[in-house]
Structure formats: structure tokens, C-alpha cells
Specification:
Blueprint: E1 5-8, E2 15-16, H1 18-31, H2 50-57, H3 65-82, E3 88-89, H4 93-102, E4 106-114, H5 115-125, E5 133-137, H6 148-157, E6 164-168, H7 171-180, E7 183-187, H8 194-198, E8 204-206, H9 209-218
Parallel strand pairs: 1-4, 1-6, 4-5, 6-7, 7-8
Antiparallel strand pairs: 2-3
Helix pairs in contact: 1-3, 2-3
Length: 219
């Protein structure tokens, strides 16, 4: 099988970004008088969009729409200024993306991170790569695992789902691939345990960048 399009999740797949997400959420929590969390806790908080991140970070008795709304502007303002402080691409990924582009494989990003931050991070870390689409979560659109974001990318790229590999680090991503009819590839270097990915029985599950390269270039 030769894939024509590779769609990547962002946080935990392309970028090791949990530290900046944690510090920004902790800033908002602290500002509002709520307890903060260690960085490791955020590995279980992220993946379903910003509202769910806030809900999971808030104390259980304070999880309501009013408090998540209060956190949003605080988080966004801080994150806009600090999103690249500790965030880095996983080692070897920029080189892989450049190689895929040279070989004619189209590249795209589909993230549950809000759209503005998704675009800013991709532009900052991968400025030379001509992605066919970079989409984050936008108001009025259902987040992953709803397949809408992937379907939009397929339409923009003019590539069929059967010719597309969807790469992600979480069960949400594996379910997104299933829902969109694309081929799922889990990566174990991200935020979720390998067992979570295995439970969805993706067609591919890789532990290294070289293994991912094999899937995309040699299949």
C-alpha cells in the first residue's frame, strides 16, 4: 500500500508540548484560586479540546461552564506568549516530514487544539513545509473523534480516505481514523500509553520515527 496523504495529530504526535500546556493551564487555575497540577497529570487531561482540558484540570466540585469560560481567556493569553518555551518537535520528525514531502506524499495536520494555536505552532516549528491543510478545533465544529476535520482535509487534498494514513498518539486519534475510513497508525512516543492504542487495534502501531518512515515510504 502506498499512501498519498499523511494526516498528523499535533500534541503528542508531532510536538512534545505538554509542559507548555501544563504551565498555561496552571497559570489560569492559580489566577482563579484553584489548585494546580504536575506536568505528568496533563498527559491525561489533553486530547479532547480546550474545554475538556479545563474541565479535567478543575477540582471536581468546580467543573462547570462558568469556570471553564473564566479559564479560557487567561489560558489563551498566557499560552500565546509561552507556547514555544518548552515545546519541541519529537526528534527526527522534521526530517521525516521533509523526506515525505520530497517523495510526493501530501502532509496535513488535524488537531483538537484550538485552531489559532495549531496554526501558530505548525508555522513556527515547520515553516518550510507546504502542508495541504492545517486544521485545529474551531467553534461550531465537532472535535475528534468526529471525522469532520479529516473529511475536510480529504476534500482539500483531493485524496481518497483509502489512500490516507492518519497518525496519532491516542485512542481519540485511532477512533478518528476508524470514523473517517482512513488507515490508523498509532505512535507510542506521545501522551497516552501503548495499551490505549492497542485496544483500538490500529493497522499500524510504531515505536520509532524509523518505523513510521517504513510504513509511509516502503509499504
Amino acid at each position: 500500500m502506498k499512501f498519498q496523504l499523511a494526516i498528523f495529530d499535533l500534541d503528542g504526535t508531532l510536538l512534545d508540548s505538554v509542559a507548555d500546556i501544563a504551565s498555561s493551564t496552571n497559570y489560569a487555575l492559580q489566577h482563579l484560586g484553584f489548585p494546580t497540577h504536575p506536568v505528568a497529570a496533563y498527559k491525561n487531561f489533553v486530547g479532547n479540546g480546550i474545554a475538556k482540558l479545563f474541565e479535567r484540570a478543575l477540582p471536581e466540585q468546580h467543573r462547570n461552564t462558568e469556570n471553564t469560560a473564566r479559564m479560557r481567556p487567561l489560558f489563551k493569553a498566557w499560552y500565546a506568549d509561552h507556547m514555544t518555551e518548552d515545546t519541541r518537535p519529537f526528534e527526527g520528525l522534521p526530517e521525516l516530514l521533509r523526506d515525505l514531502h520530497r517523495k510526493g506524499i501530501k502532509l496535513a495536520v488535524a488537531s483538537n487544539k484550538y485552531h489559532e494555536a495549531t496554526c501558530a505552532l505548525v508555522t513556527h516549528f515547520f515553516p518550510e513545509l507546504p502542508f495541504v491543510a492545517v486544521l485545529g478545533h474551531r467553534e461550531g465544529y465537532a472535535p475528534k473523534p468526529d471525522p469532520s476535520i479529516v473529511n475536510e482535509i480529504l476534500a482539500l487534498s483531493k485524496v481518497a480516505a483509502r489512500d490516507t494514513l492518519y497518525i496519532g498518539d491516542s485512542g481519540v486519534d485511532m477512533q478518528t481514523a476508524l470514523n473517517s475510513g482512513t488507515t490508523a497508525c498509532g505512535v507510542s512516543w506521545g501522551l497516552r500509553p501503548r495499551s490505549e492504542l492497542e485496544s483500538f487495534q490500529p493497522q499500524f502501531l510504531v515505536d520509532t520515527i524509523d518505523q513510521l518512515r517504513e510504513v509511509l515510504v516502503n509499504e
